[in-house]
């Protein structure tokens, strides 16, 4: 089977029963997309625990995220990508978390929305930020305030970031609505 060359990166939603480990299911989907038996797919972890495709698929990047009863898996070639999934549920501390972890401009943008739109906007922004951090490979410890998104009616756009993340113009973001009751985001930049 020829190896697909998706661009922008492709992604899928897979049901994942609560309590089950995500990696075997992610590995199976990645293997199917790459035409490789899952048990032969090399997925070593870097020093920060981020999985990386190895061997003949070293030019590819895969990432996954699970929440609730779902799993998102992404795959791209010649890109560094991250994906995040969040189960939609009440988050009464959304504004408190935004003020604590987001940039002041992002928190203000959420606070200036009508009350009914604040939690959904918080969750969309959280997913976007996690997707970038997962692509970067440092996770939340890197700092959610080291880069800034602008939220508009047309979507979310990265406008400023720490030098370690590179040029904001190099980043692409796709918001995902994979299933009712879930939101997600996929972020990538050229490798």
Strand content: 25-35%
Instruction: Characterize the biggest β-sheet.
Output: 3 strands, antiparallel
Helix percent band: 25-40%
Q: Can you list the strand order of the major beta sheet?
A: 1-3-2
The CATH architecture of the largest domain comes to Alpha-Beta Complex
Q: Got a strand count?
A: 8
**Count of separate structural domains:** 2
Q: Could you give the distance between the termini?
A: 25 Å
The helix tally amounts to: 4
Shape: globular
Calculate the mean pLDDT score and round it.
94
Name the helix and strand elements from N-terminus to C-terminus, one letter apiece: EHEEEHHHEEEE
What is the fold-level CATH name, i.e. the topology of the largest domain? Answer: Ribosomal Protein L22, Chain A
Low-confidence segments, given as residue ranges, are none
Structural class: alpha+beta
Task: Please outline the helices and strands.
Layout: E1 10-15, H1 23-34, E2 60-67, E3 70-77, E4 79-87, H2 94-101, H3 104-111, H4 115-136, E5 147-152, E6 155-161, E7 172-176, E8 182-190
Antiparallel strand pairs: 1-3, 2-3, 4-8, 5-6, 7-8
């Amino acid at each position: 089977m020829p190896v697909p060359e998706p661009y922008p990166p492709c992604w899928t939603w897979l049901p994942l029963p609560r309590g089950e480990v995500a990696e075997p299911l992610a590995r199976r989907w990645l293997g199917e997309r790459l035409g490789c038996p899952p048990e032969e797919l090399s997925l070593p972890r870097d020093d920060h625990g981020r999985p990386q495709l190895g061997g003949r698929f070293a030019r590819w990047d895969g990432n996954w995220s699970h929440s609730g009863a779902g799993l998102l898996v992404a795959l791209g070639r010649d890109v560094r990508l991250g994906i995040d999934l969040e189960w939609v549920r009440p988050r009464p501390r959304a504004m408190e978390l935004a003020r604590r972890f987001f940039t002041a401009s992002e928190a203000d943008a959420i606070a200036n929305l009508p009350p009914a739109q604040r939690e959904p906007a918080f969750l969309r922004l959280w997913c976007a930020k996690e997707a970038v951090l997962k692509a970067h490979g440092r996770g939340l410890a890197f700092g959610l305030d080291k880069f800034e998104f602008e939220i508009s009616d047309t979507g979310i756009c990265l406008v400023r970031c720490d030098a370690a993340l590179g040029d904001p113009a190099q980043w692409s973001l796709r918001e995902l609505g994979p299933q009712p009751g879930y939101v997600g985001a996929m972020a990538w930049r050229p490798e």
